[in-house]
């Protein structure tokens, strides 16, 4: 079993993944997928809010977080108040969340000889982020792979392929080991 230690970015994107498929999220729904404490959840939710990805508040009556908005929009102007690494982190979260929602590839063709007519997820990436460079795209695709959104280059078909299903995942393959959040990478094939 191949496992990786989750980074804060991985954890925040997985938390976003939980909220993006729901209108109401109970604490137990979060902790069953991400074994983290309530304070860390609140800090990560604030970071997602600062990145322009999530508006949710806790309702004691419902005993759940009520989601008001959970679609990526452009990085809010308030994020510009953050400097250096914090701004870069918020910008990356925003970009990856947009990819989680908007990345697209042509599935109507399975033949390698389609040539330029084939619209790949790489084409889509550069359409979404025209100022991005190849290194940024590779890092972003690697980040998607770390959280279970499998994107890879198929040498036989000579094109990029990506995950096919966007259903809410009941389990991320995340577990605690020696106080660290780990993710079973073999899990990615069962996620979508």
């Amino acid at each position: 079993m191949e496992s990786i230690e989750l980074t804060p970015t991985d954890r925040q994107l997985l938390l976003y993944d939980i909220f993006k498929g729901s209108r109401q999220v109970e604490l137990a729904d979060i902790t069953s997928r991400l074994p983290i404490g309530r304070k860390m959840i609140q800090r990560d939710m604030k970071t997602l809010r600062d990145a322009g990805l999530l508006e949710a508040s806790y309702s004691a009556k419902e005993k759940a977080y009520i989601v008001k908005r959970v679609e990526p929009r452009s990085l809010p102007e308030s994020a510009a108040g953050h400097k250096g690494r914090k701004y870069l982190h918020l910008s990356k979260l925003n970009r990856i969340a947009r990819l989680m929602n908007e990345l697209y590839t042509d599935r109507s063709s399975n033949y390698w000889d389609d040539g330029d007519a084939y619209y790949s997820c790489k084409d889509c990436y550069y359409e979404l982020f025209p100022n991005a460079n190849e290194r940024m795209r590779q890092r972003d695709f690697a980040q998607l792979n770390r959280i279970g959104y499998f994107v890879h280059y198929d040498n036989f078909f000579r094109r990029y392929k990506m995950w096919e299903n966007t259903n809410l995942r009941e389990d991320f393959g995340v577990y605690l080991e020696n106080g660290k959040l780990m993710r079973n990478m073999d899990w990615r094939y069962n996620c979508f």
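Residues 3-189 form one domain. Residues 188-192 have pLDDT under 50 and may be disordered.
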